[in-house]
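Below sits the subject:
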Amino acid sequence: MRHEIPFFSLAQAHGVIRAEVTAFLSECYDSNWYVLGQRLRQFEAAYAQWNHVRHCIGVGNGFDALVIALTALGIGPGDEVIVPSNTYIASWLAVTRCGATPVPVEPRPDTWNLAPEGIEPAITSYTKAIMPVHLYGQACEMGAIMQIAERSGLFVVEDNAQAHGAAYNGQLTGSFGTINATSFYPTKNLGALGDAGAVTTQDDQLADFCRTFGNYGSRQKYQNELSGINSRLDDIQAGVLSIKLLYLERWNEARLLLAQRYLFHLKGIPGIQLPAVATDCTHVWHLFVILVAQRDALQQHLLAHGIQTMAHYPIPPHLQGAYRAAGFRASQFPIAEQIARTCLSLPLYPGMNEDAVDVVCEEIRAFLMLEND
């Protein structure tokens, strides 16, 4: 039987807020002020309060947020930044863009987040920061990571692009590090209507630098104190994000219920590794990822039955052409490579019908039973 189950859809969530968003867009259109206006300041204040940080600085996208955060710390040529070996390549590219060197550390094989015990052996005299990535929506083990950073005199820069609302020991991700970055790409748990991002920090001076640097290095029009860049969150996106922020917790709860249903129905099926959640960590299920050896064949089977899936991410950063010159070799980071070969992200989004989860699980079970006969 063929089904029609998309990997992701904004239709249901956007349908709930359509009247609010269209009313705002009309009002914003008539205001004739779209950059560095009051809607941006209102969102920055609201997000900072929600994330329990002193400062939120809206920027153009999540990659810019990482670059600006690293630049604010003075990280550049000759410096090293510890990164997960299995993250999306943007985390590495931001380090490279600053002229620094990404130093990969393997994840835990069960949670797929950066393994704290692998960090200290990777620290050298050139190491300046640790960049934990809250992958797929699960908070990293920030207690251990922050202790290592404090002992070693290192900065922490959280990549919080996938984990809006996740927490470690009750504290939200994006509030631990010296300075942190997030993305509001449309598919994120808190997503804009286009590219958008933000930097978060408790530090007044770092916040002032980021705000200035992202505005051509200018605090006052036509006076440029820094050699900055142009990366600003526009008022249209800020206003939409302000509306969506009010719905984020209920949308995350919807994601959790779908994830729990997947976990229940897929538990115990031979050939599948399900996501594990670390002690004291919560997961907001930006993605529901399983590991399965027959990933490509299963993906094709599901697609043939009308079920869309994705692989996040099929090639680890160290094997990408972008890092060929760094001299990484195959099998150097076996956990990252194994995840890349076997990961499959199943459909999950607010508004998804629970019956659709059951159908996906039934088709996975049918495929694996056939394969294992």
